[in-house]
Write a structure and sequence with these properties.
There is one protein chain. The protein is of the alpha/beta class. The protein contains five helices and five strands; from the N terminus they run E-H-E-H-E-H-E-H-E-H. The chain has a five-stranded parallel beta sheet with strand order 3-2-1-4-5, sandwiched between helices. Helix 1 packs parallel to helix 2. The chain starts with 8 loop residues before the first strand and ends in a 24-residue tail after the last helix. 45% of the residues are buried.
């Protein structure tokens, strides 16, 4: 493990499992220290692995479906005391089932996590990176963003928003100081916006 401040810093949300975990491991193995987030104690276990991969890790347990959780993550980035070189806004969840059968509170929570927290954190990150003149953002989405998603009536549209938001931010970055975000996991034949390059 390197000492703090000798490696660039990356923020990875949803880093305790799935795609976020794998991206955080890749970041750690490729020279980044991490602020890694998850909403359960599992983030502490993941942080141990990221440390073994070579990173100095600040694990943050926060529920990003809540505004206070987003601000908790952003305060942890600030306490790191150095510029954020990369941010992977990956936290998200799905709800399956017929729309008439799913719980409204669960769906509103999904929208808060998959949409609202992405905009909230992206605004903080993009302004920080613009102020420092450098940085990259990767916003993950889903193939569900590109086609109808029966039995995921709220998830698919939430990821469609995330995808379009990332693409629009990338367009903005061509004329402003914003870093370039990228979008959704896709089949190998699909094209996507380059990220973290």
């Amino acid at each position: 493990m390197s000492t703090p401040f000798t490696r660039p810093l990356a923020l990875v949300t949803g880093a305790s499992n799935g795609i976020g975990y794998e991206i955080a491991r890749l970041c750690a193995a490729n020279g980044f220290d991490l602020v890694a987030t998850g909403r359960s104690a599992k983030i502490d276990e993941a942080a141990e692995q990221f440390t073994h991969d070579g990173a100095h890790v600040v694990p943050v347990r926060a529920d990003l479906a809540d505004t206070d959780g987003v601000e908790t993550v952003w305060k942890a980035v600030g306490r790191a005391g150095r510029p954020l070189a990369a941010a992977v806004l990956n936290a998200g969840r799905s709800i399956g089932g017929a729309f008439l059968d799913t719980d409204l509170d669960d769906e509103l929570s999904l929208i808060s996590l998959n949409v609202t927290s992405v905009v909230h954190l992206a605004k903080r990150v993009a302004r920080h990176m613009a102020d420092h003149g450098d940085g990259k953002i990767l916003i993950t989405s889903s193939l569900s963003a590109t086609l109808p998603t029966p039995y995921e009536t709220v998830y698919g549209p939430s990821r469609a928003f995330t995808r379009m938001f990332a693409l629009d931010c990338a367009k903005s970055s061509r004329t402003t100081a914003l870093p370039s975000p990228a979008s959704c996991p896709a089949p190998p034949t699909a094209t996507s916006t380059p990220a973290l390059a």
